[in-house]
Amino acid sequence: MLDEASISALLLTLKLALLSTSILLVISTPFAWWLTQTKWRWKGVIEAMVALPLVLPPTVLGFYLLLALGPNGPIGSLLAAMGVGSLNFTFSGLVIGSVIYSMPFVVQPLQHAFSQTDRRQMDAAATLGASSWDRFFSIAVPQAKRGYLTASVLGFAHTLGEFGVVLMIGGNIPDETRVVSIAIYDHVESMEYSQAHYLSGTLLCLSFVMLLITYLSQQKVKPS
Amino acid sequence: MSSNEFDSVEKILRVDVTLKRNDFTLQANFCSPAKGITAIYGPSGCGKTTLLRAIAGLEKDVLGSIQFGDVDWIHSRLPTHKRNVGYVFQRSHLFSHLDVRKNLLYGVKRTKENKRRIAFDDAVSLLGMEKLIDKSVGILSGGERQRVAIARALLSGPELLLLDEPMAALDHQSKSEILPYLEKLHQAFSIPMLYVSHATDEIARLADFIVLMENGKTYKHGPLLETVADINSPLAEQANAFSILEGRCESNNVTGIGANPGTPKPKVLLTSINVDGNRFRIPFAPLDGKNIVRLRIVAKDVSICLDRPLRTSILNVLESTIVEIKDNEVKGQSVVKLTVGNQFLLARISLYSKQQLSLVVGDVVFAQIKAVALVR
Lengths: 224, 376
Known about the structure:
Chain A is mostly helical. Chain A contains eleven helices and no strands.
């Protein structure tokens, strides 16, 4: 069975994925809405930047994050000025990395869902006394329910599988940055195949079940 | 009602707005009274819906003023949700993620208790929705959706109800299902309503006042009967020009003569309507004489004789005085305005006939009316 170190790696991974997904949902909601509403001509630049993690090798992303978070990097020096130490090789640093790394998987489903918002139902809500905030939370968000489900699952599952970014900015500190993917790599390196099997199997099942639930539920609520 | 009376009626809404959209300009200037239905009438695409949306605050860059009561909605930059209007859209736009009850409650929740005009249960029964209340909106028929939309708007306690062709998207069956509810609304509430439509039958039935529009501009407004009988408005030139007369049912229904001896009661064939002392006879309708009824008469169904025609199949022949004549040389037509008591009737005849009969204002003639539609 899973040994203590593996369980701790698994818990750390789940904590990282849960936290990153929650942060992503909160910041992506206004961001995705803005993307669907704005008529700004350079909006494409922002969209391209958000989509970068889809195509970029995670090590590239991790490399730049390492530099940015380092003592001489823009974020690192800013944090240092505020009296906070470097975030490299810390859990907080991993959260920041995951948020950036998984952002397109949350923003894009939400953006797609919001683009389906029925303008006319929003108008009807306005005539019934709902302010723009009220309309957003009472019409746009509930109607984007499926987008939220997809965004949560993809964001969560994608963070679970994160490797390159962690390797670059997190390293391999037990209980701090040693996530499942790193632990598996370690086990294989040291020929502990059974532990690698258990962890890989757990991750495989977890990811599959989550995706399965998403796709099945999408099918069920498809409009007739 | 004469125009002097209209001028003295309290006006709740005064609109004077301009709105530019690419190659379209809306220019509307009218006022409407604090009570009753004001129809906004014009051909499709003339800007009626845009005007209504501008009044609701759903259009951007509207210039001018919309004075409602003491407040200028444009000047005070009042957003839609603070204008206290109810809006019934052509295609309902019910909230697809909520069931009927939650759709209805959406506006109720956002209305202060002292501003609510109708109790939830009353609205449900007024619009006959008892059986729909727990259904999902996706399975409703067009007519049902529109009833929910009307109730939803009413329940938000509006001070002005805006109806954008609420029946245009419905089939004939659903239309006749909705109309009685709209009439009930008219009778049960004193909420002023703006009713956009391009259907003359709906307007003849529902409206008290009318605003005429064409190519993005309003060109005339006033009490319905008088305005549609105005010979100088483009409406009188249209193929479907019509006039509306109001009267009351007389009790002496005409029964068939020589009915089968076997049947105990002869069948009732006609109903008489008294319009300012003139009797109109129409196919039998079950009326009780309590309410004022409306007759719509299309101008091309009225012909003019100098002598009283005898032995004719036409039921309605009235002795009447010509008050105005307008010739259209291009079409070779004349529109003649005739008196019916204190009300007016339009007749459209050929310019040739008019010259042949040498009709002039003040002549007493006989109007032969081929078709009379009871609209209300």
